[in-house]
Amino acid sequence: MNRLLNIADEARLTFANLADTASDLAVPNLRLGVTGLARAGKTVFITALVHNLIHGGRLPVFNAAAGGRLTRAFLQPQPDDAVPRFDYEAHVAALLEDRLWPRSTRQVSELRLTIEYESASYLARKLGPGKLNVDLIDYPGEWLLDLPLLKRSYAEFSAEALKRARAANRSEIAAPFLAELSGIDPDGPEIETTAQTLSETFKAYLAACRQDSHALSMLPPGRFLMPGDLDGSPALTFAPLDIPFDAAPARTGTFRAMMERRYEAYKTHVIRPFFRDHFARLDRQIVLVDVLHALNAGPDALTDLQVALGEVMTSFRPGRKSWLASIVNRRIDRILFAATKADHLHREDHDRLQAILRKLVATGMEHAQFKGAEVDVLALAAVRATREATVKHGGQELPAILGTPLPGEGVDGERYDGKSEIAMFPGDLPEDPESVFQTVESISPNSVEVDSSLQFLRFRPPRLDRTAEGMKLSLPHIRLDRAIEFLIGDRLR
Question: What InterPro entries does the database record attribute to this sequence (predicted)?
Fold first, then answer.
């Protein structure tokens, strides 16, 4: 299949774009997609962005706020009746009252933030105050990895999935699934119980790949890891089979025909609606990446992450902003890749973290820029959970971070109660980003590489400071203002 959408879907998308354009005539609208693979911090990013804009956060690089042109920001009713609302209030309560991180993204959700501002242009100010609706679209990055499947046959999917499963870094994890697969005759009769068993072992293999010790990212089909209300449906009950890449069509009634039919149903009922109704309507996109998680798992995890991010970039429809063209064929004109949890490192290492992420997405960046989109790379912490300090260790002064580990977190055999603040030396990232793809040794806390404790130690959200009047300040961050400026700043001029 050469097209991501069929003619009927393209027509529906065009009508949706026409409706969006009509509403823009009253108040301009920008649809911002927020995604990332597991544990990247999507929910935290949206919550922190909205909280800082509504409560007048410290945003010195966000020009509209720094220049005093931001009049106010407030939430509006949910714009799409069929899409769940992003539960902003519950996430703020978790961060501020319980000092716990919100639950991870499990489905598509949406939130409308309206920003009122004064234009930087004298002539525009004479026309009155400006207003911009920002629709924040939150969706799991694992679903993004499904989009390339729209262009792949079942035989192609099977060949690629089994090649990954049999690779040196996965074969042991995939052993139960591969053992189950070895007893399957693709040309044998279709048996439901066999399909269920094979599919469950395949899903268990994908889930094991995602565990902290492996931290692998290339795990399509993405909905297998978060099935939601489709759990147990035939569209989610299939697995790859050992068949040639260019195999002839399956005979009716065979096990292979059954698997192929369900794979096509997955594309029809799961992937295509997500692409048509959500992804293809985005104007801007931020992709959050937990680089530190992959670093701690080693070169295999980093290489796998690099492949996954490359697949992500092939799914985007980048291009220059054009009012007329966007009515028929909407394009993403700005993409930001952000390495999250920068507060786990001292600021001296933030440039190195950005350099590693830049290498991970280099090929995709070139493609998007060639198509006319603006692309940037950034190290950030949407909510800063630590502070910086200096500690003495072995007669040396080392840059340290101070924070309160979550209850039960531990390092070097010590467990924390969630109440005590600790100081730790986070280690130094290498100057050469190439080196992190080559070393296979575990990194000790005294190394000049990455501290292996970062893989396990998670800090509680910070206790917010209060003003003299007793009011809580906005959530602290690292470079959230730079991200906001890149993503929406040009629309507030």
Answer: YcjX-like
| DSSP strand pairing (414-415 vs 410-411) | antiparallel
What are the angstrom distances between the C-alpha of 70 and each of 56, 120, 194?
Answer: 9, 11, 60
155 vs 438, more confident = 155
Can you say whether the dihedral through the CA atoms of 6, 9, 11, 13 is positive or negative?
negative
β-pairing, 109-117 vs 422-424, is unpaired
The 3-state DSSP class for residue 3 equals coil
User: Which of residues 258 and 246 earns the better pLDDT score?
Assistant: 258
Distance from the Cα of residue 8 to its chain's centroid: 29
Tokens encoding 360: 């991970």
User: Stretch 175-203: mean pLDDT, rounded?
Assistant: 97
- Note the pLDDT tens digit of each residue in 317-338: 777 766 555 555 688 999 999 9
List all residues 6 or more positions away from 15 whose beta carbon is below 8 Å from its beta carbon. none
List, as own/partner pairs, every contact residues 244-248 make where C-beta atoms lie below 8 angstroms and the sequence separation is at least 24, other chains included. Answer: 244/155, 244/159, 245/155, 245/156, 245/159, 246/155, 247/155
Q: Is residue 255 within 8 Å of 185, Cβ to Cβ?
A: yes
Task: Judge whether 460 and 404 are in contact, CB under 8 Å.
Answer: yes
pLDDT on residue 447? 35
pLDDT digits (tens, 9 = 90+) for 363-402: 888 878 878 889 999 999 999 999 998 887 777 888 889 9
Residue among 137, 138, 144 nearest 4 (CA): 144
The predicted pLDDT at position 39 comes to: 82
Q: Which helix (H) or strand (E) holds 295?
A: helix 291-297
More confident residue, 453 or 472: 472
Residue 181: Cβ within 10 Å count: 19
Contact between 292 and 281 under an 8 Å Cβ cutoff? The reply is no
Sequence-separated (6 or more) residues with CB below 8 Å from residue 122 = none
DSSP category for residue 390: E
Which single residue is written with the structure tokens 């309160």? 404
Q: The tokens of 484 are what? A: 């906001």
The answer, yes or no, to whether residue 190 has pLDDT greater than 50, is yes
Query: Which comes out higher in pLDDT, residue 370 or 5?
Result: 370
User: Per DSSP, which regions of 199-346 are E strands?
Assistant: 284-289, 334-339
Q: Give 183's contacts (C-beta < 8 A, 6+ positions apart).
A: none
Amino acid at 211: Q
In the chain the domains, ranked by start, together with CATH numbers, are 7-139+278-384+478-492 (3.40.50.300), 152-267 (no CATH), 387-455 (no CATH)
Mean pLDDT of 162-170: 96
Q: Is 134 helix (H, G, I), strand (E, B) or coil?
A: strand
The terminus-to-terminus CA distance of the chain in angstroms comes to 42
Question: Which amino acid does the sequence have at 289?
Answer: V
